[in-house]
Design goal:
Elements (H helix, E strand, L loop, with lengths): L4 H16 L5 H8 L3 H13 L3 E4 L5 E4 L8 H8 L26 H17 L2 H6 L7
Antiparallel strand pairs: 1-2
Helix pairs in contact: 1-3, 1-4, 2-3, 4-5
Length: about 140
């Protein structure tokens, strides 16, 4: 599994806003974080729709975080930018299985364990942890 570039850009954007802790323009974010500005503006719109960033209009306008960095996990961002965080189709809410053996599948229980560990790990790492350089124990 590999995150989309959008997810990487979103994490970098939120991280940068957390480190700046002031109204910041898309141009500055784009330049410092090496994100194409047109792509970034679209991404910032998505982050705004999901209440992670706030838009400030006017001459001194730009963007700030809408939540405290310690209240934003990597999972929060990944769930916005990825179409799914599930490692297999059978783990989606509809539990689709091409063999129709979801309840007896020998592999699925291991997928569930991996999925739970992945989501727990992503939810334990906050933007504040990244800002502080904290190593989170994911065991």
């Amino acid at each position: 599994m590999q995150f989309k570039i959008t997810t990487d850009y979103a994490i970098r954007t939120v991280l940068y806003l957390a480190t700046k802790n002031e109204v910041t323009t898309s141009g500055e974010i784009s330049q410092v974080m090496s994100i194409p500005q047109k792509y970034l503006i679209k991404l910032l719109g998505e982050l705004r729709q999901n209440q992670l960033v706030r838009v400030h209009m006017g001459v001194k306008g730009g963007y700030t975080l809408n939540k405290e960095p310690q209240d934003i996990s990597l999972l929060d961002i990944v769930e916005i930018t990825e179409s799914t965080v599930k490692i297999n189709r059978c783990l989606e809410p509809d539990c689709y299985c091409s063999r129709e053996v979801t309840d007896t599948c020998l592999i699925r229980k291991h997928y569930v364990a991996i999925q739970n560990h992945l989501e727990k790990s992503l939810s334990q790492i906050t933007i504040q942890d990244l800002v502080d350089g904290v190593e989170v124990d994911l065991s």
